[in-house]
Every structure is written in structure tokens, then in C-alpha cells.
Specification:
This protein is an alpha+beta fold. Helix content is 44%, strand content 22%. The protein is built from seven helices and four strands. A four-stranded antiparallel sheet has the order 1-2-3-4, with helices on one face. α3 packs antiparallel against α5. The longest helix is centred in the first third of the chain and has 23 residues. The radius of gyration is 28 Å and the shape is globular.
Amino acid sequence: MGQQVRHLLKLAGLMMLCLMVSACNPNNPKEPEPKAASGSDRCEAAVNEVVESELTGPDREVTRMKQEVDDMMAEFDKENQGRVDHPGYTESGPEVDAFFAYARETYRSYFTEKGYVEFINREIPDVFKFHQNNLDYWMDPVSIYVEKVAVEETDQEFSAFNFTAEVEYSTRREGGSYDFTGWALCTPDGEISHLTLIDLDGLAARIESDL
């Protein structure tokens, strides 16, 4: 029995030595490093984040800026009795500049420069139309689904995505569910070159009517 025990101990020692040598061997194959996200993966994440940001709110910084615009407009109209339009609201000025600066801070990193300019190409950035002051409400996307679309081969490399979103909207009086859809194009680096967001059920109009 003693000889058998010694034999087992020798085997155990040999196995341990083999494990140690294997662990120290520089030629021992390493575990593969995590694969870097592709441009398509980065774009899918970017589309999801832009849609989520746009439909979660209201954004308190946007409502604060809109309240400042309303206050400035009221003061301007009081001084001019409505005879002329406020130049900062209709053309340029610090009020409008603040909106564009915040839009760039919020969304520019997800887009190409051309795609970003197209996305916010409004006198007042249209991306903020779901974020209103003077209304006690909230909106929250309960689901966002982004799907890559197969495209025919062309000379230009890009990826295309369709997306849908469902948003819960509520005020002190009532609420409801609103559906959105849209599509996006992306560069090989994962930047959005175009994004269209479609308000299928008229949430913007509903918010406007609740003001």
C-alpha cells in the first residue's frame, strides 16, 4: 500500500511540474484578445445613443435655454411693442448660438461634420423639438431596435441601418405610447453620415398642444 501511495504522489508531483512548465513557457498559446468593435458595430451603438438622447427628456439644459429665449423675447417685445422681430431669434445671436453650441456638444461626436450639419439644419436646432419648457411632462424610450440593412455593392463603403423606437409620454393629466422609425447611413469608421427620425404618432404635435 505504501508503495502505491508513493507512486501516486510521484505522479501528482510530475503533473504539477508539467503545469508549472507549461504556464511559464513563452510559447504557450495565449487567450485571444477581445476583438475591436467594427465600424458597423460603433455606428449601431451611435444610432442607438442619438435616438435615446433625443427621446429621453425633457433635457433640463434645453428647457432652461428655451426659457431664457422666451424671457428675452417677452422683454424685447415689451420694449418694441411687437414692431420688429428679435434679431437674435430670427437670424443669429447669443440665444440661437447657445442652442447650436449645446447641439454640437451633445451630438457632434456621433456624426461626420456634414451629417451633423444636416441633422440640426434648422433655425433653432430641430433636434430639440421634443424638449419643451413650460410643461410638466416626461418621455422615456421603452424600446429601441436598430437593425443593419443589406445594401448592394457600390464604389462607396458605407453601412445602413433601420431603427424603431417606442416612447412613453406622460403629463400630470394623462399619457400614452408613441412610435418612431427612421434610418441611418454610416461611414466605415462608424460615424453617422445621415440620420432621419420619423415621429409616426405625432408626439411633437402632442407636446405642443399640451403647452
